[in-house]
Amino acid sequence: MHTEPTMYDIVGIGFGPSNLALAIALDEILRDDARALSHCFIERQPRFTWHGDMLLPGTDMQISFLKDLVSLRDPTSPYSFVNYLRQHKRLEAFISQKTFFPSRIEFNDYLRWSAGHFDAHCRYGENVTRVVPEYKGGEVVALRVHSSDAAGRERQRRSRSLVFAPGGRPVVPDCFADQNDARIMHSSRYLGAIERPAPDTGGASAPALAVVGGGQSAAEIFLDLVARYPNAKVDLILRGSTLKPSEDGPSINHIFDPDYTDFFFGQPRQVRQSLLAEFRHTNYAVVDGDLIERISAMLYAQRVDGNERVRVLSSCSVERVSCDERGVHLDLAQLGSVERLQARYQRVVLATGYMRDTSEALLAELEPELDGFCIGRHYQLATPAHVKPPIFVQGSSETTHGLADTLLSVLAVRSHEIARSLVDKLALKPATSAFARAGAGAGGALVTEVE
Questions:
Q1: Is residue 363's pLDDT more than 60?
Q2: Peptide bond before 173: cis, by omega within 30 degrees of 0?
Q3: Backbone phi, then psi, for 180, in 5-degree steps?
Q4: pLDDT in tens, 45-103
Q5: What's the predicted TM-score (pTM) here?
Q6: CA 286 to chain centre
Q7: What is the rounded CA–CA span in Å between residue 440 and residue 442?
């Protein structure tokens, strides 16, 4: 066991877009102040990827490229999407496309390009397992972040502050939860799992595939399966009576503006709940209009040629799931029908969304020292006076900060607010100090390794 004699000023859990935006904001503030804060980000993926298993061909972003990591607060930043295009000699070509919405594959490449500037601060391939308070007298003076890598090596890093941005946890409906079968997959691992192995027919003339869900991801996967397996029968199973178009006009999009966060946070709890319910259709269980038109046209073309290969099974709920060598069997209850529809599939994809509760689970050992799980306006977790390390949370505050909190729309402004708070709260050390010079290469952290 080897222990280095220093600790980090900041440890970030997760290195997706939220903490990437924070890394940029910290870099800019610290350079402007000619100061240093040692910091690192721990990411379970082996390299930066943003929803890698949903980078489907032909899928575009649903927000403007101007809502990138920096532009809403500093459009002159070298980390803007426009500068990314310029550096890759595609700026004029992109302008010629006459669109505000780049492909998802290109936007992921932009994020990866930005992340590459911070490789020295990121520890990829490690999964954070615990956060443990460190005491001195009656005070919590530091936090120990435990992680493990793919080889089983365990590490501990001490830190004077934390920023959680762990992303969402895939939601699996109860009826599927006990089915440990590779033929059932969540959309979060779609591309990596759909063709390994290729679906057999289970004795039928062609494989049968199903997508469960009624939102954007469900529609995208449904169309991808139809194109990927030209001979397969493909069903889209949704609880709603129809695919609902997303509302994204200028009269509604103000709820995703960073300024709206102040208004939303300042409302009483009941008003916030009412606003979330009112605007839920802008983000959940809705589909871009062009995708709905493509699906409708495909269904109509089937009626013309009399060959039903794809179906949209609306007002359906999955009541029972069983698996055997012939496939995945679903019992479906359809609104208005007393009979159960039974269907057998060789693949079932669950486009059933995500839960944003990961931070609370990781903070379980710190819970006795917390004042509940209350997040302030500037995303700091409320703690009593004897807990010295500030703790910030990104992407888990929809009920207090609004629908945009889990989206890309507020990243540029939110990350700067958090970075500014961290710089103000932590005692900065001059950038020319021996501590800073040591941190430039190794991160300046106390790291305990258990082989």
A1: yes
A2: no
A3: -90, 80
A4: 999 999 999 999 999 999 999 999 999 999 999 999 999 999 999 999 999 999 999 99
A5: 0.90
A6: 18
A7: 6
Residue the block writes with tokens 């980000």 = 41
- The amino acid at residue 225 is L
What residue ranges in 60-151 does DSSP mark as E strands? 122-124, 126-136, 139-149
By three-state DSSP, how is residue 402 classified? coil
Q: Rounded distance, CA 263 to CA 267, Å?
A: 7
Tell me the H-state helices in 194-268.
Answer: 216-228, 258-265
State the Rg of the chain over Cα: 24
Range 166-169 contact pairs with CB under 8 angstroms and sequence separation of 24 or more:
166/13, 166/14, 166/128, 166/358, 166/359, 166/362, 166/395, 167/14, 167/16, 167/354, 167/358, 167/395, 168/353, 168/354, 168/355, 168/356, 168/358, 168/395, 168/406, 169/354, 169/355, 169/356, 169/357, 169/358
Residue 416 and residue 18 in contact, taking contact as beta carbons nearer than 8 Å = no
211 beta partners: 236, 349
Query: Distance of alpha carbon 258 from its chain centroid, rounded?
Result: 19
DSSP letter for each residue of 312-370: EE-SEEEEEEEEETTEEEEEEEETT-SSEEEEEESEEEE---EE--HHHHHTGGGGGGS
Strand 126-136, strand 340-345: pairing? unpaired
Flag whether pLDDT at 356 surpasses 90.
no
Residues whose CB falls within 8 Å of the CB of residue 234, separated by 6 or more in sequence, listed in order: 208, 209, 210, 211, 222, 225, 226, 309, 310, 311
The count of residues in the chain is 451
Tell me how far apart the alpha carbons of residues 197 and 154 are, in angstroms, rounded to a whole number. Answer: 33
Structure confidence by residue, pLDDT tens digits, 127-178: 999 999 999 999 999 999 999 999 999 999 999 999 999 888 899 999 999 9
pLDDT at residue number 232: 94
